[in-house]
Write a structure and sequence with these properties.
Elements: H1 7-20, H2 28-35, H3 39-51, E1 55-57, E2 63-65, H4 68-73, H5 76-95, E3 98-105, E4 108-115, E5 131-133, H6 138-148, E6 157-160, E7 168-173, E8 182-188, H7 197-212
Antiparallel strand pairs: 1-2, 3-4, 3-8, 4-5, 6-7, 7-8
Keywords: DNA-binding, Transcription, Transcription regulation
InterPro entries: ArsR-like_HTH, GAF-like_dom_sf, HTH_MetabolicPath_Reg, Tscrpt_reg_IclR_C, Tscrpt_reg_IclR_N, WH-like_DNA-bd_sf, WH_DNA-bd_sf
Domain HTH iclR-type: 6-67
């Protein structure tokens, strides 16, 4: 800690991070051990976070992330979308295909930003807000591959006809961004994605990651 930072706020944020990393919640004793502070401090931190609905405790006394984080989370999509747009515009214009940023939302893949090329005679119509299962389409499959640590050596995923007949997709996951599972991809009306598109999508995903850091 430095003179310019708050120890109490730091501990509170660490509590939220610890709770976010577990599906079963943590007890006061477990939090005390992980934070390296006494139980009284943990009780105070939890009481404050509960007042803001950021933490809840079940009947067994285990603390979990509260629904209040959802209100904060709603502001994440606009920030991520704004950061990604320059890279998406460049990608769409470069390869002549609709580019998109997709984030994992539960069991679904949710398109949060879409950019269409300006110079093509035709392209796939795609809209922000489009939702589909993570297991279908290049965008969702890229996210799942990164989650499993099973991404192929090229670093991108290719699909054909899984979401729209005649359309092919290429997508690369966002790697190294804490708290975000997402991918950058393109969708085009071709039988097979051209060889240069996959590496270009990987580059665009890296550009988005850098913009988010």
């Amino acid at each position: 800690m430095t003179a310019e930072t708050s120890q109490t706020l730091d501990r509170g944020l660490r509590v939220l991070k610890l709770l976010a990393d577990t599906d079963h919640g943590l007890t006061v004793t477990e939090l005390s051990h992980r934070l390296g502070v006494n139980r009284t401090v943990v009780y105070r931190l939890l009481a404050t976070l509960e007042q803001h609905s950021l933490v809840r405790r079940d009947l067994g006394g285990r603390a979990r992330v509260g629904l209040g984080v959802l209100r904060l989370g709603r502001q994440v999509h606009p920030l991520v979308r704004e950061a990604a747009l320059p890279a998406l515009r460049s990608l769409a214009e470069d390869v002549g295909a609709t580019a998109h940023l997709t984030l994992a939302d539960g069991a679904d893949a949710l398109a949060v930003a879409v950019v269409e090329p300006t110079w093509t005679d035709y392209h796939v119509a795609y809209r922000a807000g489009f939702r589909h299962p993570l297991g279908r389409g290049a965008a969702g499959r890229a996210i799942l591959a990164a989650r499993r640590g099973a991404l192929d050596d090229p670093g991108y995923t290719l699909t054909h006809g899984e979401l729209e007949a005649g359309a092919s997709g290429a997508a690369a996951p966002l790697l190294g961004v804490s708290g975000i599972e997402g991918s950058v991809g393109v969708v085009m009306l071709v039988d097979a994605v051209p060889d240069r598109v996959g590496p270009r999508v990987v580059d665009a995903a890296r550009e988005v990651v850098e913009a988010l850091r």
